[in-house]
Design brief:
Immunoglobulin-like, binds zinc ion, mainly beta
Length: about 120
């Protein structure tokens, strides 16, 4: 009689979700990827700046959830900012709009949400 195989449980879903902010290499347009982002309740977002800092000045971007934030904080500054885990309940019908602003006044308006 064979011994049952013990299958390890991989918890890859609680790794941070990296959201890239910068120039699309194909179109040359400024963009955010993925947009919208979707994370699970035990995940967090890390925003990554892919623009050369000479291009947007010394200071990096500011992320701001102007309406309602799915996170404890509403504002995140610069490359490598971590959202920490969301404080809202998962809802695939709810997206949270945020803005990305550089000191050069380049602004984006992407979205994100928390899925079950
Ligand atoms: Zn930057």
């Amino acid at each position: 009689m064979a011994t049952p195989v013990k299958v390890p449980t991989f918890r890859t879903y609680n790794a941070p979700l990296y959201v890239l902010v910068g120039l699309d290499p194909i179109t040359g347009q400024i963009g955010v990827s993925p947009d919208p982002f979707w994370i699970h309740p035990d995940e967090e977002v890390v925003w990554i700046c892919t623009l050369p800092h000479a291009q947007h000045g010394k200071d990096c971007f500011t992320i701001e959830f102007k309406d309602k934030s799915p996170f404890k904080n509403h504002v995140f500054h610069g490359h490598g900012s971590r959202s920490e885990k969301p404080i809202v309940s998962p809802d695939i019908n709810k997206v949270y709009a945020y803005s990305v602003t550089w000191p050069s006044q380049v602004t984006l308006d992407p979205q994100g949400g928390v899925k079950p």
